[in-house]
Amino acid sequence: MARIAHLSDIHFGANDPRIVDAATAWLEEHRPDLVVISGDFTQRARVDQFRAASAWLNRLRSAGLKLLVVPGNHDVPLYDVVRRFMAPLDRYKRYISHDLCPFYEDAEVAILGLNTARSLTIKDGRINHDQMEILRQRLAAVAPDKTRILVTHHPLFAMPIGRGGELSEAVGQHEDAIQAAREAGVHLALAGHFHQTYAESATKMVEQAGGALVIQAGTATSTRLRNDEPQSFNWLHVHRNNEVELQVIVWDGTGFQRASHVAYHQHGDRWTGEAVDHPAMVGAIA
Predict the structure, then answer these.
(1) Mean pLDDT throughout 136-148?
(2) Exposed, middle or buried, 155 (CB in 10 Å: 0-12/13-18/19+)?
């Protein structure tokens, strides 16, 4: 079994230091096999914010935790127009990671991260055809018994994000991106961006989407909340490529506690979820 902590939307510059410390303590205590962070390390891509994010990541590394990270749209400067278009991820590469296509593999999982942040969009993301080819080549070559996981900041699919269930914009070129993910045999698609937890079988969202389970993380530490959903992150136990447990770990004002625990099983291209010990309390868990 692989144990993966999936955090997103840290937003140094608009975060609560108490929550950062609590998340760090939780990770140090539970010691996941891998910590995945799906973007938005900063609020406005400023040097002081990147330095704070870098110090936090170094704290996790010093605790012996392995990391896989990708940038988000907030890691691209918004108001510094010259830097935004000439060197949009220069500071991210300097302070966070030079690798915009990180890859992790062990005996049980293979995980690929792709950068969806772009200069031309304020908040929306995009995957280009070169990245799609990387996705096909890197994951399609993985042994069939391993769980293949894709990590992006922006989800490939349109998401229900409002109280009325209105849908978000899907990632740019999402039809081609979904086809590439299907051809690569992606089992889990992890993303963030919307500050809401969500999990759903891809085939319930888009026809011919393949056999992926789409998992969204809420904001782990930001004070910018959506629909009053509290800060949270995901705790995944990947038993095999058709059996995954998802626990949503939520900030309750004093610490991080489990709010839901759902076991997902794949049957054909469909994933179904069943609460392990109590019904979901946070997010639109299927």
Answers:
(1) 94
(2) buried
